[in-house]
């Protein structure tokens, strides 16, 4: 099993998506009765322009009332935004933890790309905003079974402590302030006209839907890499697998913080 990504960029992106599964198969062609020769042909329908998809979670809902908010500072261009993000994130996490756990270049683009990819099968390590857990994945063997070792769960402790310590209200405020840069990076990623905050909420809901199987979780090792023995778990997304690898207790803490972040960004708690 790969020692991959840290599940979510819990930072100002907070990291994600109810995977949209489209049905595959043949489309049935309806039988259309031909008009009688005497009947005039039906007029051709007037083509209609494709409607813009509605914004489900406008970022304005997360902004404080104008009378309560200080005048916003001007935003730097996206390609020059790293120093401003570093300063904002250091105020949330501390300078040392920021340097220890985060990659500090192309921060906005890393966050956007990782959030977008968490519901997929793989996330590119080169795009991660957070450094992977130290050490190697740890498996245990006993009773004829191969399982995820509890020692492995300890590798995620620094990230879980970070999730517990951060003020989600302030984190959401950082995200809202820099939101135009996140939106720009999302459109640059190949989603013109799409709304990044909608994608973020989809991804958060997807992670919250991660199953919580009974531990220890059984593994198999058909080749070099470990896999989940349960095919239903093996078919989960990269983000959901990360939550399983960090252990049930750690995952519950992360899910609780994700619910808080979701509420801060949308004004609503997710359905349970």
Walkthrough of the structure:
InterPro entries: DUF3014 (IPR021382). With 272 residues, this protein is mainly alpha-helical. The protein has one domain. The protein has eleven helices and four strands, in the order H-H-H-E-E-H-H-H-H-H-E-E-H-H-H. Strands 1-2-3-4 form a four-stranded antiparallel sheet. The longest helix has 19 residues. It is globular.
Can you describe this structure in just a few lines?
This is DUF3014 domain-containing protein. The chain has helices at 82-93, 95-101, 107-117, 150-154, 157-165, 168-177, 179-188, 196-208, 231-234, 238-245, 248-266; strands at residues 139-142, 145-148, 218-220, 227-228.
User: Any idea what the radius of gyration is?
Assistant: 23 Å
**Global morphology:** globular
Provide the number of structural domains: 1
Q: What distance separates the N and C termini?
A: 30 Å
Return the average pLDDT rounded to an integer: 82
For the biggest β-sheet, the strand order reads 1-2-3-4
Number of strands: 4
SSE arrangement, N to C: HHHEEHHHHHEEHHH
Q: Are there runs of 5+ residues with pLDDT below 50, and where?
A: 1-49
Task: Name the assembly state.
Answer: single chain
Count the helices. How many?
11
